[in-house]
Amino acid sequence: CAHSSQDYLRLYDMVHYGHxxxxxxxxxxxxxxxxxxxxxxxxxxxxxxxxxTQEERYKMVRAIKWVDxxxxxxPYVTTLETLDKYNCDFCVHGDDITLTVDGKDTYEEVKKSxxxxxxxxxxxxxxxxxxxxxLLMTKAHHSNIVSxxxxxxxxxxxxxxxxxxxxxxxxxxxxxxxxxxTIIYVAGAFDLFHIGHVDFLEAxxxxxxxxxxxxxxxxxxxxxxxxxxxxxxMNVHERTLSVLACRxxxxxxxxxxxxxxxxxxxxxxxxxxxxxxxxxxxGNSLTTDAIVQRIIKNRxxxxxxxxxxxxxxxxxxxxxKRLEEEKTKERAQAVL
Length: 336
Fold this sequence. Notes:
alpha/beta, Rossmann fold, 3 domains, five-stranded parallel β-sheet, three-stranded parallel β-sheet, 13 helices, globular, ethanolamine-phosphate cytidylyltransferase activity
């Protein structure tokens, strides 16, 4: 009989499309994906102040379409005991460095046991980078070529995010509306895709028995026109992946017009009749502005957190270099 494998992956802090891509890759390695999400106290101890609360993170991760189950309050160090507790065959993590507060590899035990697998991290995004964008409050990140950060992280530091058709295909469902489904169109910036957006889309999803939700995303220039400042924090390509990763979304219109026109409705074969607009209350007051204010309010804490991460990564890379140099010397002596 076929063996159904379960894999375990842990997430923390600000949930973004890089994490979603990690989850997509992890799900492809097995049949059932369990995601461990850390508490606020665990993150504060090992990494610094979290951007989102643990309750916000739990719900955000559950809304990602590749997730089958969420473990709340997962331990920061992944052990064999944790894997066995949830009947997981192996755990998955990205190919970046994860360390405890005292500089130890959080996956050391499962790596030694052979129950560790790795997926590629998504180039061009990290929590550190997104926090850096909000701290800088500039518009340079609107470019598709350069993504800025105040910190030069040697391992997870980012320089660019380049959207490809393959990446969109990986995130998109590719399913056309089926007979009997109700097509629902919503539009907006959906910047820094967060729990407020999830609650809204979940409420929209409940409007019909078989909903097919299309999300229109405004171009960066349009968002900046009506929001000002340095918005959007994420460019339209990044926002596309963030929205496509949500289990309530069926399709995305990239660069949707600010005003919903007759032509737009006709494109999706919507009925041309009056009274089809509904206002949905998400029940959540969180906004992108509120998230930015969280960062600004704790500017010094987040700057210290990013600097601490930079120092950790430099220390690990230097240790790896020394180890490699020692191995090279040993091989040279063996030859002599």
